[in-house]
């Protein structure tokens, strides 16, 4: 059984707590018999704490007879029990697949007999009993969705919703699947929440943790460290493969490498998903006829990689690849380092910026590079402008048109047909809430603390128009993220990584091998690549065969 908010979940199909049979499944007697050999059964009194928020590598617990309460703490430090696991039910959520700090507490609700499965045995159970593993995996995903939806086991972010740093922190938490609640200082009274914390409005945004400590406008890396999102990587450990970048290509490489027995680590500077992770909905990705958001696709891929044992180092950027070292050495921006026998460059590309006065002034204060539910909420019913003619721009325009007052798409070229998928072009042409402005470019930005007005100019007639627009979505092509390999790998004139070399100078040419043996490049960062999610995923899966070939020991010459 479960409580708050399960009791009020109603019949909303998007609410994981309304899907109790999947979110809180009961194992059959036969399944319980198969789980028992992996753990140790013990009798515990009521109130015995099994795990506490902030712990890492906690065990997997199964109720034989009794109850386990899952809870977080309210503002006064009192336990808020929101789930109760009964007979033949189990504890845990997605953090059992990694070594991050867990989000909740667990205790026995009454005298109970429980089965304690150590973390190592839990991983063996998932692999050896796939039908049980599928039940557990589905439950863990839904439980994390529930924690996010109801901000359970999370943090409180206090700040102005339109403030650039508030947006940055909220995006970071959202993209990393971390539960949080925003208190918008523009519309809500923050005095009660901040009372006694010596935090004034000039110190916002702040992140409030369950232990009542406060982080004043932390960097993404500092926030990740404090929340336990980062995992300690032994600098002396040598991985088989280090994947740099957790976009679709990098995650695909991690899934296939780890599933094929390679010791794999993924290094990502912000959050899984890359540029694709900011897409509101991808409708032409194979196998998802109703579409899937980039963040959801990345989240599933991340879990899949972790299921096979891949390590993820989140909020850590690679400053430099020491490619003359063997093994290769990835120098991180926090001063740490990771060693690997092979490297996959999957850092993708970033959107270019507009060359217009005041642009930097309004970045994070009205200028956006993603169109997700977070940005959609900020826009309200206002008019917005989307700059760009690619699929990302089209997806953003269609997504935003559902709720905003009107969407203006601006492109420098004659139209969209040459750069955008036809299904998006058709939707844009048929929507009364979207207007295309061809042969048009932004010529002025104006406002106060935030962007308030946008001026664009027709390139043929020279006529200009100024609109009261406070949210501008810039999606105008890509610049490769290759600064960290510029002194190591051969790049093309635009800075993308050249590939197609023989991985060891002798064997067959690999389409993903770079000028440095043992270093491969996939996805948008690769010169000549097709800028599509599906192609990046395909390259990430295929490159693993080249990695195996490179890592294979040289054949021993036959005796004369």
TrEMBL record:
GO molecular function: oxidoreductase activity
Residue span, Cyclic nucleotide-binding domain: 23-143
SMART domains: cNMP (SM00100)
Entry keyword Glycosyltransferase: no
Taxonomy, superkingdom: Bacteria
Keyword DNA damage: no
Pfam families documented for this protein: cNMP_binding, Pyr_redox_2
Record key words, sorted: Flavoprotein, Oxidoreductase
InterPro entries assigned to the protein according to its UniProt record, in alphabetical order: cNMP-bd_dom, cNMP-bd_dom_sf, FAD/NAD-bd_sf, FAD/NAD-binding_dom, Ferredoxin-NADP_redctase_2, RmlC-like_jellyroll
PANTHER family per the UniProt record, alphabetical: THIOREDOXIN REDUCTASE 1-RELATED-RELATED
Protein name: Thioredoxin reductase
């Amino acid at each position: 059984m479960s409580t708050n908010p399960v009791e009020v979940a109603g019949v909303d199909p998007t609410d994981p707590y309304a899907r109790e049979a999947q979110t809180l499944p009961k194992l059959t007697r036969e399944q319980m018999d198969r789980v028992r050999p992996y753990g140790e059964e013990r009798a515990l009194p009521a109130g015995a704490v099994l795990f506490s928020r902030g712990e890492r590598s906690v065990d997997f617990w199964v109720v034989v007879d009794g109850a386990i309460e899952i809870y977080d703490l309210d503002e006064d430090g009192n336990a808020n029990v929101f789930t109760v696991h009964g007979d033949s039910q189990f504890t845990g959520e997605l953090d059992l697949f990694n070594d991050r700090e867990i989000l909740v507490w667990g205790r026995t609700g009454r005298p109970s007999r429980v089965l304690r499965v150590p973390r190592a045995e839990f991983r063996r159970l998932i692999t050896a009993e796939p039908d049980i593993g599928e039940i557990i995996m589905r439950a863990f995903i839904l439980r994390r969705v529930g924690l996010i939806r109801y901000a359970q086991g999370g943090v409180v972010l206090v700040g102005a919703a339109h403030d650039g740093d508030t947006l940055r922190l909220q995006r970071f938490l959202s993209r990393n699947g971390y539960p949080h609640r925003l208190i918008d200082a523009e519309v809500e009274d923050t005095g009660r929440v901040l009372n006694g914390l010596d935090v004034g409005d000039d110190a916002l945004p702040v992140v409030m943790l369950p232990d009542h400590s406060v982080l004043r406008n932390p960097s993404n890396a500092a926030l990740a460290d404090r929340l336990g999102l980062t995992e300690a990587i032994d600098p002396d450990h040598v991985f088989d493969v280090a994947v740099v970048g957790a976009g679709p290509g990098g995650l695909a490489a991690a899934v296939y490498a780890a599933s094929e027995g390679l010791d794999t680590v993924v290094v990502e500077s912000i959050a899984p998903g890359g540029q694709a992770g900011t897409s509101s909905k991808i409708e032409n990705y194979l196998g998802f006829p109703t579409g899937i958001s980039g963040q959801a696709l990345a989240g599933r891929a991340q879990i899949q990689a972790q299921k096979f044992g891949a390590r993820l180092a989140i909020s850590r950027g690679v400053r430099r690849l020491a490619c003359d070292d063997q093994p290769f050495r990835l120098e991180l921006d926090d001063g740490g380092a990771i060693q690997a026998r092979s490297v996959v460059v999957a850092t993708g590309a970033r959107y270019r910026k507009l060359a217009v006065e005041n642009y930097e002034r309004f970045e994070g204060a009205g200028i956006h590079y993603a169109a997700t539910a977070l940005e959609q909420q900020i826009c309200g019913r206002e008019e917005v402008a989307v700059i760009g003619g690619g699929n990302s721009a089209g997806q953003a325009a269609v997504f935003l048109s559902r709720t905003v007052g009107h969407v203006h798409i601006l492109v420098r070229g004659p139209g969209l047909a040459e750069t955008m998928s036809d299904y998006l072009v058709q939707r844009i042409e048929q929507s009364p809430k979207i207007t295309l402005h061809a042969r048009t470019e932004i010529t002025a930005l104006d406002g106060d603390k935030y962007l308030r007005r946008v001026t664009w100019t027709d390139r043929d007639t020279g006529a200009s128009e100024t609109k009261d627009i406070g949210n501008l979505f810039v999606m105008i092509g890509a610049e490769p993220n290759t600064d960290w390999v510029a002194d190591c790998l051969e790049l093309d004139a635009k800075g993308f990584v050249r590939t197609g070399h023989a991985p060891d100078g002798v064997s067959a040419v690999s389409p993903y091998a770079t000028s440095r043996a043992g270093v491969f490049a996939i996805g948008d960062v690769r010169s000549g690549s097709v800028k599509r999610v599906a192609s990046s995923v395909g390259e990430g899966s295929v490159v693993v065969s080249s990695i195996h070939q490179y890592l294979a020991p040289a054949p021993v010459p036959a005796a004369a």
